TrEMBL record:
The keyword rRNA-binding applies. GO terms for biological process: translation. Belongs to the universal ribosomal protein uS14 family. This is Small ribosomal subunit protein uS14. Part of the 30S ribosomal subunit. Contacts proteins S3 and S10. Binds 16S rRNA, required for the assembly of 30S particles and may also be responsible for determining the conformation of the 16S rRNA at the A site. GO terms for molecular function: rRNA binding; structural constituent of ribosome. Keywords: Ribonucleoprotein, Ribosomal protein, RNA-binding, rRNA-binding. It comes from Aureimonas ureilytica. NCBIfam families: PRK08881.1. The keyword 4Fe-4S does not apply.
Length: 101
């Protein structure tokens, strides 16, 4: 099980990303706009730098929904390999059976 503080920190980051997504997208579009003047683009870049760093999407860490483990994460299932194996062995994941030969 991951530390509760790490899990909560990631949840706060997710909320910040959702809060600033529209503003960040608009500022990024303005900085990439070649037809805008250099001053406008520079001003947009400065405003973008003043936004909280944790509002950037790349700072969110994929974590297991069950345990909070940050590594060996399956995106499709939103859980780690260890949690998947435990749930699969107990028969709680449909279509997953323990192999034997």
């Amino acid at each position: 099980m991951a530390k509760k503080s790490a899990i909560e920190k990631n949840k706060r980051r997710t909320k910040l990303v959702a809060k600033f997504a529209a503003k960040r997208e608009a500022l990024k579009a303005l900085t990439m706009n070649q037809s805008a003047s250099m001053e406008e683009r520079f001003r947009a870049q400065l405003q973008l730098a003043e936004l909280p760093r944790n509002s950037a999407k790349v700072r969110i860490r994929n974590r297991c929904e069950v345990t909070g483990r940050p590594r060996a994460y399956y995106r499709k299932l939103k859980m780690s390999r260890i949690a998947l194996r435990d749930l699969g062995n107990t028969g709680q994941v449909p279509g997953v059976v323990k192999s034997s030969w």
